[in-house]
# Entry
Amino acid sequence: MGARMLALFATLLVSMSVAGETYPSKPIKLVVGYPPGGSGDFTTRVIADEMSKDFGVAVVAENRPGAAGNIASDFVAKSAPDGYTVLNAGNHAINKALYQKLAFDPEQDLVPVSRIATGPTVICVNNSVPVKNLQELIAYARANPGKLFNASAGYGSAPHIASALFEAAAGVKFTSVQFKGGGPAAQSLIAGDTQVMFATTPTVMGFIRAGRIRALAITLPQASPAVPGIPGAEEAGLPGYEATVWFGLYVPAGTPPAIVKRLHESVVKALAKPEVRAKIAQQGMDATPSASPEAFKAEIRSEAPLLERVIHESGAKIE
# Structure
């Protein structure tokens, strides 16, 4: 027993030494479960670029969209736990509530590293919709139940959660059309195929500034400096309503703690740079690194019950 424990301890020391001294020694793949054009893609590319500078190796963003992010999450969960395949995603409690069965167990198969950025969603309408503010949208939707088509980034996405909470708080009902990400949903809104959209800020800020769609409010009680010129929902006439979106990094279970720590340090270093924070702010989000991987894990667990309740009450379910 003594010899076996000694050998195990020696192996552990070697693995930690390798992780601490030679990681990374080859390109890192940073996977996101959404297509280009949305907040998931934006945060992935920002942090990939910064981590590449820090590590001295290529950090390559890879889009694997589909199934509310499950395709990407499953891919990373089943990858080698060596720190070379990393996931950028939100809270997997949503996925567990949406799907009767997942091909992976988020709590057992993935290890949280750090949150990257947090922001509100923006309540937007097509320019042809005859409303100029949030109260007018609510009144119009109540007078025309189910007649406004809501462009959603997909079941389980932050915009889906935000719209479900809004319908409950405002007492309205939209007809939701699910797209494979925020980018395609925004194009549908611009084209007029849909009339309303709850969008992550990186997805639509450019279109709003260009006057191609109209923003009515953000899904925070008050206005945010990161999204200037757009009122908060409470300011706009809907108290008690709030919905945010965040993205953070995960690695496969079994990844050496030294590598998890090194990844966390890289995220914190990147998000401390004023130019990176400014870049994120330009897209209407705030850089929000977690204090530690353990703190990030606790944050995920604390908000899981609310997310699960929202999904169940919205009636959304994917077989």
